[in-house]
């Protein structure tokens, strides 16, 4: 019961936040850069991952979850595909933010083209769901998780080639994105440090208008969150490859941490950026809530003398 309540809370929060991000980007922001389209795509992927992954687990009975059914396998495929797709989006977005800072003129000249934007996003989906397809065609398989609460990968190694599959996805879907995100963060910080050392730094930044501070904050938080969210599953993968018995508590914790990524992605990429927050404050619902708070404050004014 407590687990279902936790899942429902994540599902509700994820859908609201990601839907809000999509609404603001698609309908409120007139100038849609490649970053905006990437964030929209990430939000749509996170919503799909939440709905397809959480609803079957919340609504089905415990006896149903003890069986490996087509619904269970489909849910595992969709969740895993969306998770890798989101990781790929974040990795590509971190790389592009560095390109913006290091080669701004190349970015504005090349990445403005719609076919470039569409191709990059399509490649992220292709990469993510390609890895999710392999277990369906024989390289490993989808199986009940060790805690029997969801359909996941073959952590028990019941199929002989599952270990090689885990090693491959650990390298290409965890270590490689971590290296790229960390490298782009280091490069971004180095670029900004060099520019801050120049005498004409302010004029240079104003003319390019690339929002370096926001980009750096986003890259920093993306890197920290990536390691925080995906380390449990990386540990599970290493233990599986080494054929060490995996505690069910670690499996449950890894799954819960991974589900939190559907919330942290949109918070980091949208809600800490000043331009996005300004658009958020202009929403009618937010203005209505702020007006109510003002009326309450007017009825019950705050007196400093009360504290004294």
TrEMBL record:
InterPro entries: GPCR_opsins, GPCR_Rhodpsn, GPCR_Rhodpsn_7TM
Domain G-protein coupled receptors family 1 profile: 17-269
Name of protein: Opsin
Keywords: G-protein coupled receptor, Membrane, Receptor, Transducer, Transmembrane, Transmembrane helix
Organism of derivation: Hydra vulgaris
Record has Membrane as a keyword: yes
Spans traversing the lipid bilayer: 6-27, 34-55, 75-95, 115-137, 163-186, 218-246, 252-273
Location relative to the cell: Membrane
Gene: hydropsin8
Protein's membrane topology: Multi-pass membrane protein
Listed GO CC annotations: membrane
Pfam families: 7tm_1
């Amino acid at each position: 019961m407590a687990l279902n309540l936790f899942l429902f809370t994540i599902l509700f929060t994820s859908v609201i936040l990601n839907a809000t991000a999509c609404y603001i980007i698609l309908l409120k922001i007139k100038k849609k850069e490649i970053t905006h389209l990437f964030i929209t795509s990430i939000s749509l992927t996170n919503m799909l991952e939440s709905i397809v992954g959480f609803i079957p687990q919340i609504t089905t009975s415990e006896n149903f979850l003890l069986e490996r059914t087509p619904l269970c396998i489909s849910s595992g495929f969709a969740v895993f595909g969306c998770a890798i797709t989101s990781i790929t989006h974040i990795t590509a977005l971190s790389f592009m933010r560095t390109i913006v800072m290091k080669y701004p003129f190349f970015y504005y000249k090349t990445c403005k083209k719609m076919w470039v934007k569409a191709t990059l996003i399509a490649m992220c989906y292709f990469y993510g769901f390609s890895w999710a397809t392999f277990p369906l065609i024989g390289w490993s398989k989808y199986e009940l998780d060790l805690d029997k609460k969801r359909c996941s990968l073959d952590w028990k190694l019941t199929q002989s080639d599952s270990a090689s599959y885990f090693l491959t996805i650990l390298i290409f879907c965890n270590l490689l994105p971590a290296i790229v995100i960390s490298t782009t963060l280091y490069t971004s910080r180095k670029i900004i440090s060099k520019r801050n050392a120049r005498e004409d730094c302010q004029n240079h930044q104003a003319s390019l208008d690339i929002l370096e501070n926001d980009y750096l904050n986003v890259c920093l938080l993306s890197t920290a969150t990536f390691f925080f969210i995906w380390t449990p599953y990386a540990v599970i993968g290493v233990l599986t490859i080494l054929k060490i018995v995996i505690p069910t508590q670690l499996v449950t914790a890894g799954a819960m941490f991974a589900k939190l990524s559907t919330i942290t992605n949109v918070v980091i990429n949208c809600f800490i950026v000043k331009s996005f927050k300004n658009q958020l404050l202009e929403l009618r619902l937010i203005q209505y809530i702020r007006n109510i708070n003002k009326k309450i404050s007017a009825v019950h004014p705050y007196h400093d003398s009360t504290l004294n």
